[in-house]
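forwarding from the other thread:

> can someone predict this with 2-aminohexanedioic acid?

sure thing
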Amino acid sequence: MDLNNYNQIVSRANDVQKMWQKVPAPKRGEVIRSFGNKLREHKSELATLITKDARKIISEAEGEVQEAIDMCDFATGLSRQLYGLTMPSERPNHRLQELWHPLGTVGCITAFNFPMAVFAWNFCLAAVCGNSTIWKPSPHANSCAHAMKKIWDEISGDFNDLCIILEGGKDEAVALCQDRKIHLISATGSCQMGKELAPIVGARMGKTLFELGGNNAGIVCPSADIDLAIKAITFSAAGTSGQRCTSMRRLFVHEDIFETCIEKLKDSFDNLVIGDPNNPSTQLGPLISENSFKEMQLSLSNAKDDGALVIGGERLDIESPSDFYVKPAICIVDQIIEEMREETFAPILYIKKYKTLDEAINYQNDVNQGLSSAIFTNDVRESEFFLSAEGSDCGIANVNIGTSGAEIGGAFGGEKDTGGGRESGSDAWKAYMRRVTATVNFGSDLPLAQGVEFNDE
Ligand code: UN1
């Protein structure tokens, strides 16, 4: 790692932030609005770049740019809503209020699979909250990062260094984590990556926002609209070639409808159009790398050894020999096997039969990750139970839609090894600010809280 370059980047980011925090938040919002407008103008060329770097199909790539645009709109509105509560003080002539201030510089580490949207989740909120961002993109997606940065530079005037790219890998990520001049580490990636980075930031009592791996499950109940469920499961499990943190990896199907669902799902997987992601009729592009392909094959062979019936999963001989196209795999199991506990970033769906909803929810929750979950049912008791505290333990719980494809308006993230962070909508902005509790005495006496007497007469 070039330490000189690193230090320069951090001091530029720190310096520009000091200027930026003086700009009133609604004015900061206007800059983010211009950013969003430019993204709109360049939507299709940005999508083409995503397809090139992340290999996702054009419609999903466009959806990803849209997600970044939506974030700009959301953050623009938010720039007038960074509210602090005013609480009734227990003392006369006192005001008790919370104030929200920027943190400083955010270190944003992003993965290959959402090379623009996840940056936008972070950068748009960080910026309206008054922070600068150092962005370390995935080495697979540097050109996406530079394209975003170029657009930012076009509209940001003196504030172009509010976003600075730090290319690199683990060394750069570790440097950010160790650095006290980085006031929040927001990292998206595998649980393993998060576990390596968390103690480094923790050692300096730094703030983190982790959005890590998922091991997302679907539950199909007897009352479900099966055709709708099959469509949703196919998109979540096979779509994006299983390379979303929200991809569906496990499915629990009620015994009464098990055979029907398996048959329909096999048909649905057989009918997927797999090929060049630039072709608008393609539904699945290739895996990101040969390494991903190898990991997928290893998981499938372990699953077979553990007694799973594996359908699909083989490499398809399509177009360029350097691309790894695969048939999404279905693994039918009689019992929970070890492979189902890990997130393999590839299209593999483990399917198991269940008898009672309690049993299905136990299976679903009995993994270390806790990002997304879905139930397919037309029974309000089942769906409400699933959403209750005794139901799904994930950060995202869906009814009659798949596990993937969340909108930006909700807070995004999950529990347990998923890291606990929340990004994008709702009040996720609070992670990018520090809270000051201010008590103002506008009287001429000095009453103490809790009625404490401290008589100096
Ligand atoms: C990710 O895979 O890291 O909910 C993010 C979804 C997308 C974001 C996925 N909006 O699937």
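Residues 216-399 form a domain with the Aldehyde Dehydrogenase; Chain A, domain 2 fold (CATH 3.40.309.10). thats all i got for now
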